[in-house]
Write a sequence for this structure.
């Protein structure tokens, strides 16, 4: 069975593409066949985060418009055997994506036996975001613990509950998960940042992951290597946990409290 | 700094954020799923009511309730303690 997961947020810059890339890698590393699709038509970026930007020949819109086959457009990842990337088009024509076209591509991936299709949504609530979520079975809502991100993601929750195929068919709707990024336990402890529980309570969602603020995220995108593949990074471990939870495992949250300072650090600061 | 914080009684900014979000999210959720004209209807109602009574913008609530397949449009206006037309 193929599961379609949309990674969405409403607000831009909160970590949708970083999350899509890491979740896709994490699932594929566990032996799942995964396709990750960039729905941000006109602003292609998933290819850069995945490090395959120089291997894009055909894109999502080419497939939909019949200019190539899906097989020709899928870019096979060089690190993980069962992982494929479908790049967004750079066309300025936002209407290049059609509902029928997207359905055809998703159906073909399903027929091909993919276990997971990760849809990397563009920011906003326009057509690209709508189509990215429309066919989804589950949604990972990426949120920064910050007022505009939380509010926008609640808008997205409203759309997930009404403007998706599952909502229209009335068969339980899309299963929603909260993934917090750029989390700073230190700032939560000093009362400068909302906590996981605050955001969870406001949005009423279960938490699938909390990714701590980390310098490794920028270096990962600099290098084109999804951060989950940097085994030394806290962000990587946090994404790994999120992948386990998506697969139904019960894993306690990590990196949500500040490590206890030693005696000397408390006296002298640090 | 650490000692001073002990004496300060102001709420943390995270608490302020949480309370503001709680209110706005709840408000936006109640408007959700209703007809698109609700915000405009609310604004125009407010204008008419304010010709006669000086009510607070937040005092006018417009909701759509759904019960047994029926939709009920519900208005509630909280009047100020001494209702009077402005300038009367």
């Amino acid at each position: 069975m193929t599961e379609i997961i949309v990674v969405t947020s409403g607000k831009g810059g909160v970590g949708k593409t970083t999350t899509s890339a890491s979740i896709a890698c994490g699932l594929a590393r566990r032996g799942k066949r995964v396709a990750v699709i960039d729905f941000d038509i006109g602003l292609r970026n998933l290819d850069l985060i995945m490090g395959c930007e120089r291997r894009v020949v055909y894109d999502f819109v080419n497939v939909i418009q019949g200019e190539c086959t899906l097989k020709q457009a899928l870019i096979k990842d060089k690190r993980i055997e069962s992982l494929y990337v479908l790049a967004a088009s750079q066309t300025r024509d936002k209407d290049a994506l059609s509902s029928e076209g997207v359905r055809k591509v998703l159906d073909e991936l399903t027929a091909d036996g993919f276990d997971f299709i990760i849809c990397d949504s563009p920011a906003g609530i326009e057509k690209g975001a709508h189509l990215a979520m429309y066919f989804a079975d589950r949604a990972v809502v990426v949120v920064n613990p910050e007022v505009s991100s939380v509010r926008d993601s609640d808008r997205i929750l409203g759309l997930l509950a009404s403007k998706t195929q599952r909502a229209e068919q009335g068969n339980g709707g899309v299963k929603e998960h909260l993934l917090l990024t750029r989390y700073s336990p230190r700032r939560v402890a000093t009362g400068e940042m909302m906590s996981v529980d605050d955001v969870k309570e406001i949005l009423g969602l279960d938490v699938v992951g909390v990714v701590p603020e980390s310098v490794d995220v920028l270096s990962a995108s600099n290098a084109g290597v999804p951060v989950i593949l940097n085994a030394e990074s806290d962000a990587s471990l946090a994404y790994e946990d999120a992948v386990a939870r998506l697969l139904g495992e019960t894993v306690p949250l990590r990196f949500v409290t500040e490590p206890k300072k030693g005696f000397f650090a408390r006296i002298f600061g640090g | 700094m650490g000692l001073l914080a002990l004496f300060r009684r102001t709420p943390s900014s995270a608490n302020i954020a949480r309370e503001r979000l709680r209110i706005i999210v709840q408000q936006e959720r109640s408007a959700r799923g209703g007809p698109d004209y609700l915000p405009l209807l609310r604004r125009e109602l407010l204008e008419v009511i304010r010709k006669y009574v000086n009510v607070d913008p937040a005092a006018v609530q417009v909701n759509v309730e759904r019960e047994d397949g029926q939709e009920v449009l519900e208005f509630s206006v909280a009047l100020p303690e001494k209702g009077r037309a402005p300038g009367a």
